[in-house]
Design goal:
By secondary structure, the chain is mostly helical. It contains 5 helices and 2 strands. The model has no long low-confidence stretch (mean pLDDT 81).
Length: 72
């Protein structure tokens, strides 16, 4: 239950600043993916569990498809 609430909080936090967040908005190293460190740079309250909830393919980074869930 705590993971669901935390994930929901991150989803809301990521959605709050803009309705169309893309990898380009958060990708500070330009590799086309967003790591937990890059998300935490913009949203310091992001936890490992909440990030993992968005990382649906489990590769340790978020792509535009995974970030699009935040917009829904």
């Amino acid at each position: 239950m705590k993971t669901i609430l935390t994930t929901s909080a991150v989803v809301l936090a990521l959605a709050a600043p803009a309705w169309a967040i893309t990898v380009a908005d958060l990708d500070t190293n330009g590799d086309g993916l967003v790591t937990i460190d890059e998300v935490q740079a913009a949203y310091p309250d992001t936890t490992d569990d909440s990030f993992a909830g968005l990382d649906t393919n489990g590769d340790g980074s978020l792509d535009d498809v995974e970030l699009s869930v935040v917009q829904e």
